[in-house]
Write a structure and sequence with these properties.
The protein is built from nine helices and no strands. The chain is 69% helix and 0% strand. Residues 70-97 form a coiled coil.
Amino acid sequence: MFIVEKAQLSSHFRSFTKKSKHVPRNYQLDARSFDEKVIVLLKTLDLAPNSSEISLSWMSTAVSFLSTVHSEAEDQISNLKSEADDYQALYMEYSLKVLDLCNLISSAVQRLTDRRLLMNFSLRLLNFTDQIPSPEKLNKAKDALGRLLNDSQESAKEKGRRAKDLMEELAVLLVKLLPRSKTSSGRDLIRRTFYALGVLTVFVGSVFVAVLYGDFDVIELRVPAEFLWADSVNGVRTRIFDLIKPKQNGLLELGNVTSQAVVVRDLLQVVVSDGGDNVDDRVRLEDGVKELGTAAKKFSDGIDALTNGVNGMFRTVLKTRNGRLDI
């Protein structure tokens, strides 16, 4: 972000009647500029009118949004120099929690990657290029799809609880930063910027925890009306939370892959049982495998994009954190 400052003009000729006056920095203008950037960035999180589930694509956009806001906030705060030192310890605490959250999100995405491996293994076995695969391959593919469909959240419960605790800890941290007056000083601007960053982190983080770990007891922080983007983020958040609360797994690409995997698994059972002699069953199985391959491609692309986004977020926060330590 570019900080708006009024230039301090000086003359080549000294005046003996007047001294040059220092033009004070307009902190409220800086705050407004930051708010306007957040409003523009929030538009990237808008869901399509017919959306019924959160997609991996949206999650990738959301984590990129958070990385950008973090960079904008850092630019705002770092330009305030000495005033920023007062919030050094608080930022260290905040950034450590965000890095921890990134690791927990990465762990959840890795579980999706493991399911992708099972799916790709099944698709390799179900190659209909020349003829129907052997009974041995059909059985192996059916077993692999069964393991994919029987994935349990049990092993991830502890990490899910930790992710939820992090959201609550960040919410408590924000209480210390809640703006109490107009932005009339560098400290006020830092407090306000830092609070905005924290609120947006809790918002995006809560969605990720809900979708990836299945914990729908989300934390909803209402943004004070003094922030120009309050209505925008409150509106987006309400729509998203209303979308994910009723669902046990609100991830679009995973739902598509899972439903198609059920179809293929059941067809495999039929084909294996009749020895592959029924032509209609074989045709339906081949068509089902093609549809599974299409769904798997979208699922795989979504996982890769989200992985890159979370890694980018981690690097952004770590770079900023290291920069703060070097000051």
